[in-house]
Here is the input.
Amino acid sequence: MAGYYLYSLDPLDMASLVEGEQDDLILSLAENVTDQLDLLDGQFEELDPVADWPSDPHALLPMLKVRLNQDDWYGDLSVDGKQLWSSAISDYFAETKGFVAEGQCYWDVIEFAWELLQVPRNTVTEAIALSAFGTCPYRYTPQKNQKRSWSDWQPYHSMHSPESTARMLGELQSIEQQLTKTATPETCHDYEDELMPVMHRIVYEKRMLFVGIDT
Here is the structure.
């Protein structure tokens, strides 16, 4: 069973949504949001903005336009609110034509890479792009250089710009010799035959990386 499912998406699909000028796109997102509202009805904290969101997609449009324009989509939301927004965004892009299944890899290869890159466990650091792999949805601002606790929100996907994905590829290439000499045969296989071909392809095509976490 895979630890991570690897996808790519067209950066133009992201730009078209974030610009907030195409109501049909935002309405599609709004429909995903209202589906999640129905599932999580009554679970939101009193001060969570999501608690005031209407269940009608058209009525929700103005609020989503404001949120899409924010630099941080998650910071003011409760744990349940974060999960709702994350799921709605994930479902939205999974339905776009530019969303492509690229491959998969196991937990071990990423954890081994983090160790070789000296990334503290459960920590996102600006210095190492790969530290955000599987942990940072688009426009989510984690506490930099601070270890996540068990009570923190745990994202189920991450999204990375072409530039960040290229940085990740460079970091993975920098540890290739050390990894292939010291990792298990299974981890080496995952690195050489599963992870790296996908990373090379996405970087070459200048697409965004979408990492889905196998739960």
